[in-house]
């Protein structure tokens, strides 16, 4: 045993060099193969416009949008090889689970909440710096400054009412002060409220707490998300002069290739839907690209040819819009 320990102690430690991961840069095809893209692009634009026009005058547009949020969230997990039942997601969203929610169900619910946030916000919010930071789970400085300005405006607006109340209360200032006994539990509750208000004021003032260190077992510490996000945003900026459907297709494809976030591959397709909404192509709904991609074989979704991947995105938009038209007409007839 002693001899074995001696041999182990004499062994030199081999240094391990960690190679920093390099992300794949994305290049928009130049020139674009218009002869190959023109037909599917026109079909996608036409299908999206027809569905949006139908929803603009539909009496069930709100219900249609609410239901498609659920179906697209389930489809996003299907594309990753996971199965989430629509009924389970509905019950989980209502807080009426019949069993402990699975990891896949919680992820689908995260997609559902994100879709709702994008659909409820302004059309260009999700693509803004503050919107993207919020969707990533990081509070933006712009949001804090806006909140601080709103609070200041509210204080100015309510100044007259406070002065009036002070005047009414001032009529009894000449009376002797009386000590009022307070419940210690009530005092502790007020102290907790004061502490929460002070913490909110510090947050609104820009004092952010340090983010906790990420677990290397779950996250790649060399994965520079901020740099990847900047690269992706530069690509999106270059699509401003392109047709809306083509810009959305490039947005989704670039997210899949650059992979800005380690554990949110589905966010790129939601942002592509936000591009369609921001460009005015879908004013009344958020396109269900996940549901449309379910109709495309995996080999085509993962093609190495950029033009083929763009064609896949166009076909997904067309399939999602056509399915939406059929579902809308069926639900309208069942009223």
From TrEMBL:
> Where does this protein have compositionally biased stretches of type Basic and acidic residues?
141-156
Stretches assigned to the DUF1612 domain = 217-333
Q: Which InterPro entries does the record cross-reference, listed alphabetically?
A: DUF1612, Y4cF-like
Entry protein name: DUF1612 domain-containing protein
Source organism: Chiloscyllium punctatum
Q: Where is this region: Disordered?
A: 135-168
Q: Name the source's superkingdom.
A: Eukaryota
């Amino acid at each position: 045993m002693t001899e074995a320990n001696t041999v182990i102690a004499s062994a030199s430690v081999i240094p391990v060099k960690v190679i920093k991961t390099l992300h794949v840069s994305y290049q928009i095809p130049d020139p674009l193969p218009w002869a190959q893209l023109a037909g599917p692009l026109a079909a996608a634009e036409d299908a999206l416009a027809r569905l949006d026009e139908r929803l603009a005058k539909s009496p069930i547009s709100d219900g249609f949008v609410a239901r498609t949020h659920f179906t697209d969230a389930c489809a996003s997990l299907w594309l990753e090889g996971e199965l989430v039942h629509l009924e389970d997601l509905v019950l989980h969203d209502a807080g009426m689970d019949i069993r402990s929610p699975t990891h896949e169900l919680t992820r689908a619910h995260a997609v559902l909440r994100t879709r709702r946030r994008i659909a409820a916000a302004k059309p260009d919010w999700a693509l803004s710096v503050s919107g993207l930071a919020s969707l990533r789970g990081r509070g933006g400085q712009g949001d804090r400054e806006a909140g601080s300005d709103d609070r200041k405006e509210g204080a100015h607006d309510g100044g007259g009412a406070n002065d009036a109340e002070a005047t009414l209360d001032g009529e009894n200032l000449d009376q002797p002060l009386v000590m009022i006994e307070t419940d210690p539990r009530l005092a502790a509750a007020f102290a907790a409220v004061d502490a929460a208000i002070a913490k909110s004021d510090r947050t609104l003032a820009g004092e952010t707490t340090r983010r906790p260190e990420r677990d290397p077992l779950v996250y790649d510490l060399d994965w520079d998300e901020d740099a990847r996000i900047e690269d992706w945003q530069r690509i999106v900026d270059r699509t401003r002069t392109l047709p809306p459907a083509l810009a959305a297709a490039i947005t989704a494809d670039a997210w899949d290739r650059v992979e800005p976030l380690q554990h949110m591959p589905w966010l790129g397709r939601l942002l592509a839907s936000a591009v369609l909404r921001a460009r005015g192509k879908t004013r009344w709904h958020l396109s269900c690209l996940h549901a449309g991609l379910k109709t495309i074989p995996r080999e085509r979704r993962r093609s190495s040819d950029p033009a083929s991947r763009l064609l896949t995105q166009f076909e997904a938009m067309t399939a999602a819009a056509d399915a939406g038209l059929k579902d809308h007409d069926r639900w309208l007839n069942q009223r």
